[in-house]
Structures are given as structure tokens and as C-alpha cells.
């Protein structure tokens, strides 16, 4: 049996996923842009972490793993103190150690993660490395996980020692060693049968610790789980979902009336079953009456950096790079029904000051600002107010006057079956303004927030022509977001006025 540490951890999550990866890879869902972005971040973080152990040598990546193993052995013999991507093979189990430190005839293992904590799956990752090196006769001093310290705030310069936390997991890893032969034997039993997939049902493991790339195949193709099922009931939780599934219940229409649920979950189920749209006219009317014109529809786009490049940033802090603002004036004012303003930062520069300045120029202190799920927008603005004292009063005034368009849907004043029990704009928008679903799909290049984040983060890698095209796509996408909010508000007004 040949096994890499990535295949080992895949098998820990689900042996069937391991089998499919080995013998039926065509059924696996390819990595999307978000997954690729996470992978790129991991590579960047890994390179930075090597600076904690300077003057080392990196084993060149090659498809010829025997060559990588031989290079590692040569450098160990040469007395290299730090080896990056040190490669070892024991009985077909191949591991690459992110950072191997050698001192006084002992080695220390360092696994680098772009996460902000030590997750259980990381312990399995390190444990198989420990197992291989131990069986090859190495004296192991320690096993460690290096992860991002999300409490670190960058000063003028990046402090590599503050950016990372090194967590000694030696004791945990040693305690896992005795069970590894049993795990490997189980994997071997599954993999010996090349013709028959392991009979492992769907469950919580399909999403924990990661969404499995075999999920689409197992759920849609094999188990015929519909797009909206008991697994989508709002806030139901995996335990109750599996309880229903184990009783043979997949469709929401089949959920028993006496099934133990919270009132919110039960209401979501009942709304779906009834196929009736419920509208609380009085509460929606009160909500609308609190909105004074002009109304400033605001939406931010943000991105993150694992290694903060600018002063005052934390790792993975939301960095605003763009906003769209649709200004809705009261009906009746000549030629002043709707106005649009926008901002999009230049790439590879710290644009937070300029964005804060423009925001204060575009939104008066006393204006009604409307956002969808305003906690996000408020969080961005509050951080800008903390950073730039000269704008603080104005920015906080904007926050004080902000209202949330999500409220009527969150409080269930407007419910339709097609919202699938959710108040996310992902469901609310197509339910109320179905034509907008098509509008997003027709956008060129950027069609959702994840794509926007990745597009801006990679702008600097593009030619000027490609860059301008993508900037136009970003502007069109963000503009559509605030126009969508305006259309949702318009729909609420029509319902209240019975138009």
C-alpha cells in the first residue's frame, strides 16, 4: 500500500473518500476558486514560517519521490540544520515534513498551517509523520504545529516571531501512535478491493473537518439527496439531520409534526410544507416608516491577508477594497430618483485611508444607510474609525444611522417556501426578485463575493489589459449587489401598499 500524508488524513475523515481518490478520481469535485485560494494561502504561510528556522535548504518538489527522499538523506548526512519539505518513505507511506530541525542527533517536526488554531485533523497529520520517522530510526525530540497568531497586530515591520504560534503537540501525537497500525490495516483492507466501493453512508463526516470532494457524488448521485432537503432546514444541526436521515426521512414534507425541534426550526418546516407566502404587513410597514430619505444602500467587498502587509492589520482581518452606494431619493424629486457612487482601490497598495475618506465624502453624517446583514458593514466601518481618528466621528455617525434590510426576513415578517427557511440574501433575492438570479449569472468574470475577493487579491499578477477588464467586472458585480438591495426594498414597499 502506498499512501501520502494527505491521503492518510483523507482516509481519517472517510475511508470511502480515500478509495475514490485512489480508484475513481473522476467522480470527485474539482477544487473551486475558494479552495485554490486557501491552497495558495497555505503555500505563502509555509514559506514565511521557514523564516523561523533560517539558513535551511528546501527539497526541490518532484514527481520522482525517490529523488526527494535521496536529497533529504544527503542533506541529513551533510549536517544541514533545517530542511524544508524533508521527504521520507517507510513501507510505502510517504511524508513530507514542512520543517525538520536537526540538533544534537535529534529531530523536531514542524507542521505549518494557515489556520489560527490547532485542529484535531492536524494531530493526525503530524502523527503519521512521527510514525514514519520513528520507524526509520530517528530520535524525535518534539512534534509541533505552527499556526497563525490572529491576535498579532502588525507595526511598521512584520514581526515573524509574533505572526506565528508554535504549539508542542508531542504528547498528543505519541498517544496516537499505538492506533496507527490499526488505521493503516483498515485502509489496506478497503484498498485491496479495487472493484467495490466501501459501503459507508453519508453523515456528519462529509463536512467535518472539511467538505469532502466526494460529497456531490455520494449525496446527489448515489443517495439522490435533493437540492433542498432535511439537511437544509435552517439551524437544525447535524445531529438531528442524521436522526431524521437514519429514520429514512429526506424530504422536508415527510418530517413528522412531533419531531423534536426549536420553534424557529419547526416554523421553517411548516412554512415549507404549507407552500404559502406569509407577509406581516404591519411590522414591515413599521420597518419602512423608520427609513427616511434619501436612503443610502451600501455594500462592501473585502479581502484578507494571512501575513498582514500593512500597519495596524491583524492576520485574516477583513480589508475593504471596494464599495457600491445606490442613493435612493424620495419619489417626486425631479431627476433625482436614483444616484450611484462607487469606489474601487488600486491593487498592491494600502487603500484603507482613501476608502474611509471617500466614504465620508459620499455619505452624510445624518443619512439613513441600509445594508443587508449590517453587522458586516458596521464591523468594517468601526475598524476604519479606530484606525483614522480624523474620520472617526463621521464614520461612527454612519454606523449609528445604519439599518438592516435583513430584519424583515430574519424576524419572519416575510416568508416564502422558496426561501428554504433562510433569511440569507442568497435565498431572499431570487425569491423576491427572480430576474436578478439571471443578472448575476450574466456577469463576466465576477459573480459572487468569493470570486470578488480572489479577483482583487490577484490583480497585481495580471497584464494592464486583463487588470482593467477584471476591475470593470468587480465594479459591475458590486453595483449589482446594492441594486439588488434596492429591488428587495421596492418589493417590500409594493407588498405594504398592495400594489
Please, could you describe this protein's structure?
By secondary structure, the protein is an alpha/beta fold. The chain contains 20 helices and 14 strands. It is globular. The model has no long low-confidence stretch (mean pLDDT 94).
Count every helix, treating DSSP H or I runs of 4 or more residues as helices. Answer: 20
Our Rg estimate from Cα atoms comes to 27 Å
Structural class category: alpha/beta
Morphology: globular
Poorly predicted spans? none
Strand content: 15-25%
Largest sheet: 7 strands, mixed
Q: What's the β-strand tally?
A: 14
The residue fraction in helices comes out at: 40-55%
N-to-C CA distance = 69 Å
Query: What integer is the average pLDDT?
Result: 94
Brief descriptors of the model:
16% strand, single chain, 20 helices, 499 residues, alpha/beta, globular
Task: Give the helices and strands, then pairings.
Blueprint: E1 3-4, H1 5-13, H2 15-23, H3 33-49, E2 57-58, H4 65-77, E3 82-90, E4 93-103, E5 106-112, H5 120-135, E6 140-148, H6 160-163, E7 164-168, H7 170-176, H8 180-192, H9 215-222, H10 238-246, H11 263-274, E8 278-279, H12 281-289, E9 295-303, E10 319-328, E11 338-344, H13 352-362, E12 368-371, H14 374-387, H15 389-400, E13 402-404, H16 407-410, E14 414-415, H17 425-432, H18 435-441, H19 449-457, H20 464-496
Short description:
This protein has 499 residues and is of the alpha/beta class. It is built from 20 helices and 14 strands. α1 packs across α2 and α12 crosses α20.
Amino acid at each position: 500500500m502506498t499512501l501520502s500524508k494527505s491521503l492518510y488524513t483523507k482516509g481519517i475523515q472517510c475511508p470511502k473518500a480515500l478509495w475514490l481518490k485512489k480508484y475513481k478520481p473522476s467522480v470527485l469535485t474539482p477544487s473551486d476558486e475558494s479552495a485554490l485560494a486557501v491552497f495558495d494561502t497555505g503555500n505563502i504561510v509555509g514559506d514565511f514560517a521557514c523564516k523561523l528556522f533560517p539558513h535551511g535548504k528546501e527539497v526541490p518538489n518532484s514527481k520522482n519521490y525517490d529523488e526527494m527522499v535521496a536529497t533529504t538523506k544527503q542533506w541529513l548526512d551533510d549536517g544541514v540544520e533545517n530542511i524544508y519539505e524533508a521527504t521520507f518513505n517507510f513501507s510505502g507511506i510517504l511524508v513530507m515534513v514542512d520543517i525538520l530541525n536537526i540538533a544534537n542527533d535529534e529531530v523536531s517536526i514542524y507542521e505549518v498551517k494557515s489556520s489560527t488554531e490547532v485542529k484535531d485533523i492536524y494531530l493526525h497529520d503530524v502523527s503519521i509523520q512521527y510514525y514514519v520517522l520513528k520507524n526509520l530510526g530517528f530520535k524525535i525530540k518534539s512534534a509541533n504545529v505552527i499556526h497563525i497568531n490572529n491576535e498579532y497586530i502588525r507595526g511598521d515591520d512584520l514581526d515573524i516571531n509574533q505572526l506565528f504560534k508554535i504549539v508542542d503537540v508531542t504528547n498528543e501525537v505519541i498517544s496516537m501512535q499505538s492506533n496507527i497500525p490499526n488505521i493503516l490495516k483498515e485502509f489496506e483492507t478497503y484498498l485491496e478491493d479495487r472493484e467495490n466501493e466501501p459501503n459507508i453512508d453519508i453523515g456528519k463526516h462529509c463536512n467535518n473537518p472539511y467538505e469532502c470532494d466526494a460529497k456531490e457524488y455520494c449525496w446527489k448521485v448515489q443517495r439522490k439527496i435533493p437540492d433542498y432537503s432535511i439537511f437544509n432546514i435552517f439551524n437544525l444541526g447535524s445531529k438531528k439531520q442524521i436522526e431524521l436521515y437514519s429514520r429514512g426521512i429526506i424530504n422536508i414534507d415527510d418530517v413528522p409534526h412531533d419531531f423534536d425541534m426549536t420553534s424557529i426550526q419547526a416554523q421553517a418546516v411548516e412554512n415549507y410544507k404549507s407552500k404559502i407566502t406569509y407577509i406581516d404587513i404591519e411590522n414591515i410597514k413599521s420597518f419602512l416608516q423608520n427609513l427616511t430619505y434619501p436612503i443610502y444602500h451600501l455594500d462592501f467587498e473585502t479581502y484578507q491577508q494571512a501575513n498582514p502587509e500593512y500597519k495596524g492589520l491583524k492576520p485574516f482581518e477583513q480589508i475593504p477594497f471596494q464599495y457600491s452606494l445606490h442613493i435612493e431619493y424620495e419619489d417626486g424629486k425631479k431627476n433625482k430618483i436614483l444616484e450611484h457612487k462607487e469606489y474601487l482601490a488600486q491593487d498592491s497598495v494600502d487603500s484603507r485611508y482613501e476608502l474611509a475618506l471617500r466614504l465620508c465624502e459620499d455619505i452624510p453624517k445624518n443619512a439613513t444607510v441600509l445594508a443587508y446583514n449590517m453587522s458586516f458593514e458596521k464591523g468594517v466601518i468601526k475598524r476604519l474609525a479606530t484606525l483614522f481618528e480624523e474620520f472617526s466621528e463621521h464614520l461612527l455617525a454612519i454606523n449609528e444611522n445604519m439599518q438592516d434590510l435583513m430584519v424583515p426576513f430574519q424576524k419572519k415578517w416575510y416568508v416564502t417556501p422558496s426561501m428554504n427557511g433562510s433569511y440569507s440574501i442568497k435565498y431572499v433575492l431570487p425569491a423576491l426578485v427572480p430576474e436578478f438570479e439571471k443578472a448575476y449569472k450574466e456577469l463576466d468574470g465576477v459573480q459572487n463575493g468569493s470570486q470578488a475577493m480572489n479577483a482583487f487579491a490577484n490583480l497585481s499578477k495580471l497584464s494592464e489589459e486583463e487588470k482593467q477588464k477584471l476591475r470593470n467586472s468587480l465594479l459591475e458585480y458590486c453595483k449589482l449587489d446594492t441594486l439588488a438591495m434596492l429591488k428587495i426594498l421596492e418589493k417590500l414597499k409594493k407588498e405594504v401598499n398592495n400594489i
